[in-house]
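Reading a protein record of the kind used here takes little practice once its layout is understood. An example of such a record is reproduced below.
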Amino acid sequence: MSGDTLSTLREVRLEPLEARQLLAFGQIDESFGSGGQVITPIGALAAAAPAVHELEVVADQGTILAGGSGGLVQWTSDGDVDPDFGDNGNIPLPGTIYRDHDVAPDGTIYVLASSDVGGFVVRYTRSGQPDPSFGVGGSTLISVGPTFTPAAIAVQDDGKVVVAGSVRTNIGDGARARVYRLSADGSADLAFGNGASIDLQLGAGDPIVTPVQKDTIAGLKILSGGKIILAGSSLAYSPEFYDDEAGIFRPVVYGDSVFATARLTPSGQPDTTYGDGGVSRSVYASAALPAPATAFAHRDTDDAIALAAYTDRLVYAQFNASGVVAFNRAAPAPGFGIPLDMATKQDGRFMLVGVAEAVTGYGLQVAYISPGGELSNTIQTSDLRLDTVDLAEAGPAAIAVAQDGNILIGGRPGDGSAAYQLVKLDDGKVDVQRPDHFAQARGNDIVRDAAGGVHLAYFDATERVLKYAYRAPNGLWAPTVTVDDAPESGHYLSIAVDAGARPGIAYFDGHHGDLKFAFSSTDGRWSTQLVEGPGIVGLYPSLQFDSTGRATIAYYKKTGGDLKLAALQPQGQWTYELIDAMNDVGRSAALVAQPTVGLWSIAYTDTTTGDVKLAWRTKARTWAIEVAATTTGGADFLSLAYNPSTEPGGVYQRAAISYFDAYNADLKLTQSSGDGALVWTPRILSTQGVAGLYTHLTFDAFFGPTVYYYNRTFDRVTRLTDHFHDGVTTESVAEGAGRFLSVFSDGNTIDLAYFDEDEGLLKVQSMPVRV
């Protein structure tokens, strides 16, 4: 290096994170089993592809009991198969469909299953042997035939057994809930309900428009005092049919889908002091066909019930002890997927395990719901180690709280072997700040690497230094690192990753007025170097790595008012190009590679004229400069992207720029014609309040552009899509926040970082692309 490019190198080491300061739940508990997990082969009589459906930790001994399509398996609290249980730790259930199981206070085990004959209950001793004193030879039939579908079982303190499920109605189109009770010896308890059973409808549809209700049972719980809580969901609809009188086909009409809980007295009658006549309902979808409630949990401390389902995202609700709905919420963005099971922590959190919306290759998803109803960050169950087998990404799966308070996830191995797999994760600390929240982090930029790791650079407004955070592909955050501790470093910044997933940051050193570059080596050490100075250099930097891995930065040199480009050469020195020196130019620079040839394009503003400009390198290696839009009061927050839709002859050169029009406070888009004589067409996308701050333009589909931006008037992050067949539509992505918004899109996933001024937190959020 020579002259003013000589670098001052500094190194920042990643320090190991102390266990008491876990930034995220979900760290593998290495003390359990083998490296945090156990894989137990299932006997030859079990299902070909066994999967865990239910996990239970036996209270008095801490053993872990799993039930599923491969029968029952019991492990010790350390993750060893219990050789004294069943047949070397396993109870196969050949020829049956496992539904649920429960463990009585004395350790007796009850299994709910079904077959071609009907639904039945089997009782085992605590050592896993059939109990012949129950029913006939240890089992008793509850229902005959396929009309009743058993779903949940619970055992009372007096040994009586309660079974819940759904029974078909409306010639099979609908269903209602049914609850049976057996005496301690397995015989029908005729004193219960209306002669050993009771039916009730969880749903409440319109008798004219949507007269059919279809109930689904998610869980069952015996409360202290003997009352019974039943939880699930119900869909109201009218099936499709051919109207003979009108001579037309009537399509299906969907009404409300509701979360529902019902409470019965100890004698099996609706408890009229609960909810509305014994049933409480809360709508989670309307005029659509969502998934039913698939996860349920009960909180002992206050008898609250939690339920979760999936619409186009995770939805969840909590009912308090009297049936009042404490909250009914949808996840702030799609991403979690279908919930499979739920468990309750002693600190009041409801833990969730589920299936991702798209196969990610990093196991199942785990999150928690706080007592106040906030959804945590999501982690994935894979340990990202090549020498271990991870849980299959698709369900079924189950979750439970171990005796030491950590989290147990049960499922099946991703390698397809006939086995149960159990993973133990650290549960984190409820009073620790969320790992995807960063206190007083203001200006920022975010990028995702090809492996799925998320890299965040930000200016810490408290310490007034440049910092970096990394989220691994499985959702676990590493400790935050100070990249440059020089005061006022990072007011303006841009982050990118090279082909090796190593991050680089271009940023403005506000103390010296210099443009600087920081780069991370493979071992996590950061080095920083001066790119250009002195003067006021490096505002609005935009960093990219070219096809050869060279760092390239477009930036505004305020001293002189020029747009410049700097490239790091293999020998370590920086070279510079003056792109535009006419007027005061270069604010809001956005550097993007042209999609077909890989040559650079830069969108920027001309402060003197108020124009939006595009500079692009031609095949002759010269720079062409065009006015893409004119404004009266100037433009800011530019974002540049190329429309991937093909033009005649296979041309992919339709550049588009989104920007904030400062005069009218509107969000605008200008797009080139894509032909030889480029014609730019500006248009207004949104006039709703002060719209268009911190824009990010992307073409995630062939249907038109999508713009993410902050609407200052409504204080929210908005996603606007301009599809040629649907027109312009908007959707709120985050409410009550949005300043300093940065966005990364790779066509599959959107990563957002934005500042919540009320809470003083920068929040990171990821979700799949919607097309």
About this structure: Residues 1-23, 648-652 have pLDDT under 50 and may be disordered.
